[in-house]
Design brief:
The protein is an all-alpha fold. Helix content is 84%, strand content 0%. It has one domain (8-96).
Length: 98
């Protein structure tokens, strides 16, 4: 199961790699002529900007949600432990039924 789990760090690294590769492609095709190449370069540049913006938004939202979760857990530690225990028991029971 751990093979299928992608960490946020790995996902972030992969997205940044794709962005860097796309930027390299844009640079490599800068001297290419033709209307179709120009159109594709424009679309790729727009997609890269949207991807960067989305990544920044997702990182900000994830950080905000992590702070909220931390606050709730600190305000209600025993309830949080009880919920985690209940979920763990439920998952254990479901996996044990196989």
């Amino acid at each position: 199961m751990s093979e299928n789990v992608v960490s946020t760090g790995k996902l972030k690294q992969d997205v940044h790699t794709v962005i860097e590769d796309a930027e390299a492609l844009l640079g490599a095709t800068a001297d290419q002529a033709g209307e179709r190449v120009k159109e594709l370069r424009g679309r790729l540049a727009t997609a890269l900007e949207r991807t960067r913006a989305t990544c920044c938004d997702l990182e900000a939202k994830a950080a905000e949600q992590a702070k909220k979760a931390d606050h709730v857990i600190r305000e209600h530690p025993y309830e949080s432990i009880g919920i985690a225990l209940g979920i763990g028991l439920l998952v254990g029971w479901m996996l044990g039924r196989k």
